[in-house]
Amino acid sequence: MFETLIKFFKFCDTENRRKFYGSIIVGIFNSLFMALRIGAVAVMLRGVIAKAVDGVPFEMQTVWMSFAIMCVSVVGGIITRKITAMWQCEGGYRTCAKKRIEIAEHLRYLPMGYFNENSLGEITSVTTNTMEGVGDVATRAVMMVFQGLLDTALIIVMLFFFDWRIALVGLGGFALFEFVNLFMRLAVKNVSAQKIRDDAAEIGKVLEYIQGIAEVKAYNLAGKRSRELNEVIDRRKKTLVKMEMRCIPVSNIQSLVAKLSGVAIMLASISFYLSGTMNLADCSTMLVCSFMLFNALEAGGNYSALLRTIDIGVSKANAILSLPTMDIEGKDLPALSAEKTDIEAKKIDFAYDSSSANPRKIIDGVSISIPAKSTVAIVGPSGGGKTTLCHLLARFWDVDSGEVNLSGRNVKDYSMDSLMQNYSFVFQNVYLFHDTIANNIRFGEPNAPMEKVIEAAKKACCHDFISALPNGYDTVIGEGGSSLSGGERQRISIARAIMKDSPIIILDEATANVDPENERDLMHAVEELTREKTVIMIAHRLKTVRNADKIIVLDKGKIVEQGKHEELVSNGGIYARFIDSRKRAVSWKL
Q: What does the alpha-carbon distance between residue 311 and residue 423 come to, in Å, rounded to a whole number?
């Protein structure tokens, strides 16, 4: 139990760890105030019994003393309980909030291959359910478990001042309670791990179902996919029920031990009184204490079963934070001017599974030179490595061997943030955020004035359709831009890139899926975006490729041809066949 709490404290940042440590110190005072109630009861009972048995006059001073001790106990308890609750709540929730941000920042610098190999549901679950659970459970568990232990320990210590024999009975009950509590924590150990796995599986399956709902409907798979989703939800439900069912019997035994320990104190006190080894006042005080001793411990003991959830949640978050990032310790260099954005790749190799025994190379010994302010088109068969090459040039991954240079300097010499200042991207699959159109456009420059946003939108040929929307630029679009057409989303992404105004533009099939009605506006937007820039494009459209300064043909991770359009067509190779197939596709009519 203490190992888990220590692990959680290490997980906290310095500021919030101090809050927990401070709450423990204040909690000790809270326990002292709670223990003072025994003193108040003892003073009153001794005064009453002395009058009833010995005929000693009952003085009001006894009442006032008992009342004063009780007032100090109650007021001090309220104040210290409030402070401990506030500090523990702030420490727990703020720690998890900061860890979410820390995880998000850490994910920024992981190789993109991590996101291909790992479930989106797993990542989402850790940053949502897991951190939410740690925040909720840690706050309550730390507060209840620690406070229960402190209250019980201090009351037992105080009992030693009354009668060491009763204190030993209480100590024995405490030890037996903790022994049963150990079985509770062991009972939920494996189930807690299963719960975390089921949480991740449920989120992953829900995301998959929602994101693929169009395909589910199109192929009439609603029943099958619904069954799969229901099975995951049902499995999680069974795990939660199993967790509760394992806790309930042990929790009941634990509660029974606490109550029987109180009964043992009562019987021992009465026995000692009858044998003449304990006076009536102390016996009466012990009878009252027997009801107080295990109340806090019983509540804390029930929460201790959840400590396993904290342990697993912290481990999962630490597992993500310990993933090796790309080397991001380069220098913070100023953004380059368009005249200095020459790019050179020297014999670069790359494989997604480079750590395996027989890695399959996606990029194999590629060397290219891209002069500043030139346009390079990368074409080739599907799966040839075109997108991967672009990602390597922009350092979405690190090359396995060779090097990529930007303006004569290895891209690893740049810090990741300063390197990204030089690149803007327009992908085939555009992602827009659930926010206003204006904020989506100013995504790379959050504080840009509205005038600049409108200027970028006009250049990207999207001002007119934005203005026609109900709330114009303040229209909130659905997550992923689902409320807009493909061409509209594409133009907004181009406006976003125009706003960023980076000297290097990477276009990955940016015009592949555009409809004829949007093509003219989209091509105009691309022209505005790429004017006086260094442009790297992946494209299949003849009109997009033929005017490039250099065309690189990539096949099976290797450059098989490169040159200008006319030169490659005359060579009669892959590119010539590619152009011929495109011409025949365009001329085909129904």
A: 41
